[in-house]
Amino acid sequence: MAAVERRGPLAGLKVIELAHIMAGPICGLLLADMGAEVIKVEKVPGGGDTRRFLPPAIGDQAAAFMMANRNKRGIAVDLKQEAGRQVVRKLLAGADVAIENYRRGTLERMGLSYDSLKAENPGLILCEISGFGRSGPYAERGGFDLIAQGMSGLMSITGEAPGRPPVKVGAPITDITAGILGAMGVCAAYAHRQRSGEGQRVDTSLFEAGITQTFWQSAIALAGGESPAPLGSRHPMNAPYQAFATADGWITVGAANQANWLRLLELIEARELGEDPRFADNERRVRNVEALDAALAPLFAARPSADWLARLEAAGVPAGPVSDIAEMQRDPQALARGMVVEVPHASLGSVATLGPPVKFSETPAAVIHGAPLLGQDSRAVLAELGYSAAEVETLIDRGVVIAAEPAAG
Predict the structure, then answer these.
(1) pLDDT of 336-380, one tens digit each?
(2) Which of 86, 238, 243, 336 would suit a FRET pair with 142, their CA atoms being 20 to 30 Å apart?
(3) Pair 279, 339 in one domain
(4) Tens digit of pLDDT for each residue in 70-115?
């Protein structure tokens, strides 16, 4: 597949993604959605590990791989062979950005150190996403979302109550956040390069991504010296701000500021709670949140969710349903915002995926095509690098690269 003309704010930016699993690919996905040309380099044999994250599958393709790698072109290269490393070096020589999430020292062992790459391409931006960052006592460690959630403090504040088993956030939040931070760092480094012509390294990690998610809880610990405990759906600094059981399900209610609190009391016909000194202001409601919960829970349990949500919306009190993932994907607001879209895939026809989360008025982000088959763009990318048709076929015959499709003609 030839490079597709893109219109997003990063149109013209060329990114080489030497990344696997999730954090690095999420960084590449976000850049691709915003218009960058992202060429994903997969290992030989087998390709990216998420190709084997099964089930589920759509046709013969892993759903996990397809979700994290839409909008990218793909080439499969054996980096254990010198000819394969030369292919990657040529790719990087003409790139604006490289993304990698190997263990520290991996690129250096392949002869692809940043210093050597920058000597050929001074403007190259290298985004490194790792478990713990490229410096510090843990720099040599590998990292996974579960480990980062535990070490960053996230698992200590997630769950129903103190003394219960630790619970991870359901989504791989440190992987996804690290990808977002990496994309943000790339954009900032690109802005600097536009002014100076100078490339640089961008270094972030799953550990730091997890820490970034603890702003409120870190504020509490830094101010008072004590670590906050898990609160279920409650907020550590506002009340009522949590999920409540209704007669037929669950809803969330955010009536934390005083105006919304008073509106809520009118709505639930519990004006007497406004006279209770334990609930007079937000600070006292937070300090007495167990008593507040005990007072509100039976009132919410008396009516079904739809009834409450209609009443709360009419009164201007922030509230919403607790949706499962399939319900979220059918939500009219998610659909109106283009957060679930259909895109063409090389072997499966039209497939559904998530849409770009950032909207631009003049340079819209877009999902143009699905994830590549293994080696789908190998021939086209090699031709763009200057390899002749005969040289391309030699590389394929020697197993240096894999091509998904036979040569045209």
Answers:
(1) 999 999 999 999 999 999 999 999 999 999 999 999 999 999 999
(2) 86
(3) no
(4) 999 999 999 999 999 999 999 999 999 999 999 999 999 999 999 9
C-beta pairs of 166-173 under 8 Å, 24+ apart in sequence: 167/230, 172/22, 172/145, 173/145, 173/149, 173/209, 173/210, 173/213
Exposure letters 284-308 (e unless 16+ CB within 10 A, then b): ebbebbeebeebbeebbeebebeeb
Q: Which residue has the tokens 């030839």?
A: 2
Domain range for 373 is: 14-213+331-402
Quick one: residue 133, left, alpha or beta (phi over 0 = left, psi -120 to 50 = alpha)?
A: left
Q: Is residue 209 part of a domain?
A: yes
Counting the structural domains of the chain, the total is: 2
**Neighbour tally for 349: CB within 10 Å:** 10
Does 203 fall in a domain?
Answer: yes
3-state secondary structure of 18: strand
Q: Exactly one of 33, 78, 175, 377 is catalytic; name it.
A: 175
Catalytic status, residue 49:
no
pTM of the model: 0.94
Q: What is the torsional sign of CA 276, 277, 278, 283?
A: positive
* Inside any domain, residue 20: yes
- Are 348 and 303 members of one domain? no
Say whether both 203 and 136 belong to one domain.
yes
User: Is residue 316 domain-shared with residue 347, that is, in the same domain?
Assistant: no
